[in-house]
Amino acid sequence: MLNGFRFLPSPFQPIFLITRSISHVHDDRFLDSFDAFFQRCFTFQQARQLHSQLVLTTAHRVPFLAARLIAIYARFGFLSDARKVFDAIPTEGLHHLLLWNSIIRANVSHGYHEDALELYAEMRKLGFLPDGFSLPLVIRACSSLGGVDLCRIVHCHALQMGFRDHLHVVNELVGMYGKLGRMEDARQLFDGMFVRSVVSWNTMVSAYAFNCDSLGASRVFKQMESKGLQPNSVTWTSLLSSHARCGLYDETLEFFKRMKTRGVETSAEAVAVVLSVCADMAEVEWGKEIHGFVVKGGYEDYLFVKNALIGAYGKHQPMGDAHKVFLDIKNKNLVSWNALISSYAESGLCEEAYAAFLQMEKSGSDGQSPVRPNVISWSAVISGFAGKGHGEKALELFRQMQLAKVTANSVTISSVLSVCAEVAALNLGRELHGFAVRNLMGDNILVGNGLINMYMKCGDFREGHLVFDNIKGRDLISWNSLIGGYGMHGLGENALRTFDEMIRAGMKPDNITFVAILSACSHAGLVAAGGNLFDKMVREFRIEPNVEHYACMVDLLGRAGLLKKATDIVQNMPIEPNEYVWGALLNSCRMYRHTDIIEETASQILTLNSKITGSFMLLSNIYAADGRWDDSARVRVSARTKGLKKIPGQSWIEVRKKVYTFSAGNLVHLGLEEVYTILEELALHMVSENYKIDSCYSQEFVYDEPKHFLQTESREARCYVMP
DNA sequence: AGAATATATG
């Protein structure tokens, strides 16, 4: 029987009473038994019961007990309850550092870093000197807030307080510099330590892991072994995560196996890493296998393992199993919800993701911990809609996110920027640029690439290039965005020049680079250059052409009127042509009025189980233009029987920071009749600049490629004329 | 005291 408590009726139903009077509370044995009980509190309800029992005897004001209560509430995510316990302490009770440490810890572990620092300041004002437990917490809060200056200040503060050689404090400082991405500083601190514990080594390995440096992590790992130190399960886990973060999935799994053969205990954390690798590898079967392993090994007790399991099941459909795991979790936390939402989003089920998001906002009413959406939740739904082409919805959610006072991070910004690029929302894009600079994300590669892409697609080449020039550590995506932007606007020469520069800079082009450069050639009619590049791609860069590359080539040749060569490619390509390839051919036939090939191509498209309505509509329009109304109707019926519905083509104009979406014929309804006047002016302008206008209807313009935008100097609007 | 799961641009 535990001293001080009487359990009723079984030890697993820890409903208990404090039987001793408050004077015994300071008794060490009492505290031990209290701790033993404390360890068994597994649910929030049990914590509440414990609290009310303590309140009955006013023992909740005893600093030791209060500190433990704070910790238990924090464990279940009820920070406000933890705070209540803290606030209930009478002033004289606050003279216990333990209490301050526990409330600061509660705040730090739940991401309330500013609050933690405020509490620390308050504590200092009362004259407390921090100990070896408070300082690491404060350092952690600063490093999570991420400001370099703040981190420097806290480093100085630690030195001033005399913790220069304090093991825990220096360990935390090493971790802090790692999180800032300043590995040289971390290394220097680490090298200067007189005494290093396993924790110090582990901090270094995980710092490299955090910075996606698997080589650095492996180096420290080996160094540790060569010094005769035994890497423990934490070291191994960090090593695993360093490889997982670099996308080295096979290596991660290899290390996981080696960990077992070396007799190192497989930690729950390591299992979570492996599950995340399964999620990224689309290896649902392995996920299932590991699920068995999880159940057998008792890892199910760990929430984060279950959360990882949601990802492993949910990333690649069907979502049933993931949802089952989710529903099974008793104390769902933020990550559980985010894993569910992002699984839906990644599977392309953006409406379901949004539904889960809304449900999350209402969470907490069922006795579970209330969870509010954070940056990641918002980013996940936004990118879900963005990925499905629902740009408008994505932008609307982004606005809502700002109203909800959730600060966007580089990931959010990059997703929203890609929407801006798609819907040509240049002004919003500029706004985001400003936001990024103000929030010190100017150097972020994700944001930088998003900006390049956005500016280029919106036609602001100067600004796009400026961002490109100033970006540090530009990567393949930066180059691809630049080339793709030029290509899209028909500036083939610029695209080619950029491609050459890229090669000279020692960058290795990938298949996406070639899609960009080949389509740039076809938009600009650079037939010879395109052909050369296609050869180069295969011979020199050893990149196997995919359907997209073939579609580009068919488009390139067909557009130039080389219909024979284009058809040859379609007939001889080693992979099955898809709707894009046939569509490119069809379009060329239309341009050059080659009715004989049209028939052949048309029948191919009709037999294809294509989900692309564009080709059907193109075909139908060709027949209609030829006066073959029966054939035209036949194609439309065929599209309808396949369950295809044409989403009307849309155009955008951005006037005074508002994006107007419209499709042919509805301008009068929107009160934008004057747009027609502008369009007519543009059409005349295009004719005078020798751009070919394919067909011109009374209320609807269909311009042929090259897609080109023209800026009207006289008005403040930029018009993008889409085909 | 240290490890872990959720968002990522072309």
Automatic annotation (TrEMBL):
Q: Which PROSITE patterns match?
A: PPR (PS51375)
Q: Which UniProt keywords apply?
A: Repeat
Q: Does the keyword Lyase apply?
A: no
Q: Where are the PPR repeats?
A: 96-130, 197-231, 232-266, 333-367, 374-408, 475-509
Organism equals Flemingia macrophylla
The record's similarity note reads: Belongs to the PPR family. PCMP-E subfamily.
NCBIfam families for the chain? PPR
Give any Pfam family that matches. PPR_2
Q: How is this protein named in the record?
A: Pentatricopeptide repeat-containing protein
